[in-house]
UniProtKB/TrEMBL annotation:
The lineage of its organism: Eukaryota, Fungi, Dikarya, Ascomycota, Pezizomycotina. Keywords: Membrane, Pyridoxal phosphate, Transmembrane, Transmembrane helix. InterPro entries: Cys/Met-Metab_PyrdxlP-dep_enz (IPR000277), Cys_met_metab_PP (IPR054542), PyrdxlP-dep_Trfase (IPR015424), PyrdxlP-dep_Trfase_major (IPR015421), PyrdxlP-dep_Trfase_small (IPR015422). Belongs to the trans-sulfuration enzymes family. This is Cystathionine beta-lyase. Pfam families: Cys_Met_Meta_PP.
Length: 418
């Protein structure tokens, strides 16, 4: 039922939580991000309160003491202990569930969320590409405990029932995309599970659940948080797997692993979700504009950019080469705010961040500030000529000028050395 028709029926009464819940699916993501938790508070403040309590008082009346009574999921003020659930994280999860369309579990970090997947599925084998080095390190740790074997995506002809395919899309650090329909079909035929790290492509850019993905992982530290001030991990479970009890199992396992979000992070996450659609859309558009500019300039070997930049990668460049259209279907609203460039040599890559005024030289991504990282600083497996660029929400023209001035400074160094 649309909100208007709900309102027409309640002109003489008060809009209820049930009516808002019924109307939410008709609303855009940007609207739902602001109003999905309107009835999730025990107070009347427009902004969420910051709850920092660890434990919560039981009922004073001994006749009303019932085990688990304080864990009523329908109540906005029903909690026992923050390792179970807490007001901020619960309200955060309420909005996430509405935006992502699946069962939600939150964790202290993205790697904690990935570890939860491994504990849930306990695969004997996991197939994945290069991707984030932290995920590979976590799998290496699990190998010590369970003997899980790590195989490449070029070995999928060996896949069997119960195995896991883990896909990053877009990929760290290049921002290139992977075809989820293809990997979903491979997993289904084999009776395997498909998990996807969609950190680089959050809503509104893509919805991996539409392609049959079992669990979607987000490092909420990045775009969900978006302000360089919080850490969290998020799992989005396919509705079919929710009915099979996966969320219940994840919850019971989180209780004993203790990898829950902090109270402050839940509050910061709520603040951040309100502008998720605005931020990510702007950041993605900026990245595509900068990528196209650098790519065109690179093709002219006499230009300043062409003299210092050797290569560039981003999903938007892939889309230009694809003929079957899968990428446009998978990411209809943009190709992601992260891309990678390779300089002519490692010294130039190391030096470029120091020549920039706006771009901050730091690891991580997804923040309102534009970031650039000489990737060798945090991942020694990367080509030392590689720089990862994460676009913020600054004016795109200013970012372009900043990069151009940096390229010019490197070019003058080249001229002096010749």
């Amino acid at each position: 039922m649309a909100l208007n028709s709900s309102m027409e029926k309640t002109t003489a009464s008060i809009v209820t939580a049930e009516q808002l819940t019924e109307a939410l699916p008709t609303m855009a993501l940007a609207t739902r991000a602001i109003h999905a938790d309107d009835f999730s508070s025990s107070h009347r403040g427009i902004a969420p309160a910051m709850h920092v309590a660890v434990n919560y008082r039981y009922d004073r009346d001994p006749e009303k003491l019932v085990q688990g009574e304080n864990e009523d999921p329908t109540s906005a003020d029903s909690f026992v202990y923050s390792r179970y659930s807490a007001p901020n994280s619960k309200r955060f999860e309420t909005v996430l569930e509405n935006l992502f369309g699946g069962g939600i579990m939150t964790y202290s970090t993205g790697l904690a969320a990935f570890h939860a997947i491994m504990v849930l599925l306990v695969p004997k084998r996991i197939f994945l590409g290069d991707g984030y080095h932290g995920v590979h390190g976590n799998i290496d740790l699990m190998t010590k405990l369970t003997g899980v074997k790590k195989l490449g995506l070029d070995q999928l002809d060996q896949i069997q029932s119960g195995d896991v395919i883990h896909i990053e899309t877009p990929v760290n650090p290049t921002g290139e995309a992977r075809n989820l329909s293809y990997y979903s079909s491979v997993a289904r035929r084999a009776g395997a599970y498909l998990t996807v790290d969609a950190t680089f492509g959050p809503p509104p850019l893509q919805d991996p659940l539409q392609f049959g993905v079992d669990v979607v992982l987000h490092s909420g530290t990045k775009y969900i948080g978006g302000h360089s001030d919080m850490m969290c991990g998020i799992l989005v479970v396919h509705p079919q797997r929710v009915t099979e009890g996966w969320v219940d199992t994840l919850y019971s396992e989180r209780l004993v692993m203790g990898n829950v979000m902090g109270n402050l992070e839940g509050w910061l996450g709520l603040r951040s979700l309100r502008t998720l659609d605005l931020r990510v859309t702007r950041q993605s558009q900026t990245a595509e504009s900068l990528v196209n500019w650098i790519y065109q300039e690179m093709r002219d070997s006499t230009s300043v950019v062409g003299r210092v930049v050797d290569d560039i990668r981003h999903a938007s460049l892939q889309d230009q080469d694809l003929r079957d259209g899968w990428l446009r279907k998978q990411m209809p609203r943009g190709f992601g705010p992260v891309f990678a460039i390779w300089m002519k040599n490692a010294d130039q890559a190391k030096s470029l961040p120091s020549k920039l005024c706006i771009f901050q030289h730091a690891t991580s991504l997804g923040d309102v500030e534009s970031l650039i990282e000489w990737r060798a600083m945090s991942d020694d497996s990367c080509d030392r000529r590689l720089l990862r660029i994460s676009c913020g929400v600054e004016d795109p023209a200013d970012l372009r000028r900043d990069l151009l001035e940096g390229f010019k400074a490197l070019y003058h160094q080249v001229l002096k050395s010749e």
